[in-house]
Amino acid sequence: MRTIAATAAVLLLTGLAGCGGTDSKPKPNNAAPPTAAPATAMVQGRLLMVGGPAPGKGQPIAGTVTFTGPDGSVTKTQVDESGAFAIGLYPGTYTIAGTSPVFNDGKGRCITDPVKTKLAAGKTVTADVACPVK
After folding, report:
1. What domains, with CATH codes, occur in the chain?
2. Are 23 and 73 in contact (CB under 8 A)?
3. pLDDT digit string, tens, across residues 30-59
4. What pTM value is reported for the model?
């Protein structure tokens, strides 16, 4: 019995001697942590001329749609005569406005209703930009 216990003790000590030695120092992790792409929100809609003679149905027009972000950043997109736009932006509350050369010679401001549009990550919001004709 002593021989078995002595042999087990020697094996245990031999096995432990190899652990934690100077040859197996942990190496520093110099790799940068992975960065996730910023979450985006989608906004889609149309630039429309609205009002005027009956039936007063919105008419798509070409022009520029401008998105002013919560930090004051400005993003612009051109739209053709279909008036349609779709763009990915960072989440936040935006003011979306538009202009068109066919609306007050490009000097009139077209807006959304409500004026501020909240965009949430992973969601799509529809925001039509109206150029009111009186």
Report:
1. 41-133 (2.60.40.1120)
2. no
3. 555 555 666 799 999 999 999 876 666 899
4. 0.70
Element containing residue 6 per DSSP (H, E)? helix 2-17
Q: What is the dihedral of CA 42, 46, 47, 51, to 10 degrees?
A: -130
Closest CA to 96 of 79, 116, 122, 71: 116
Computed over its alpha carbons, how large is the radius of gyration of the chain?
Answer: 32
What's the CA gap between 105 and 1, in Å, rounded? 105
3-state secondary structure 99-134: ECCCCHHHCCCEEEEEEEEEECCCCEEECCEEEEEC
pLDDT value of position 51: 86
Dihedral angle of Cα 45, 105, 55, 132, to the nearest 10 degrees: 60
Please state, in angstroms and rounded to a whole number, the distance separating the CA atoms of residues 106 and 100: 5
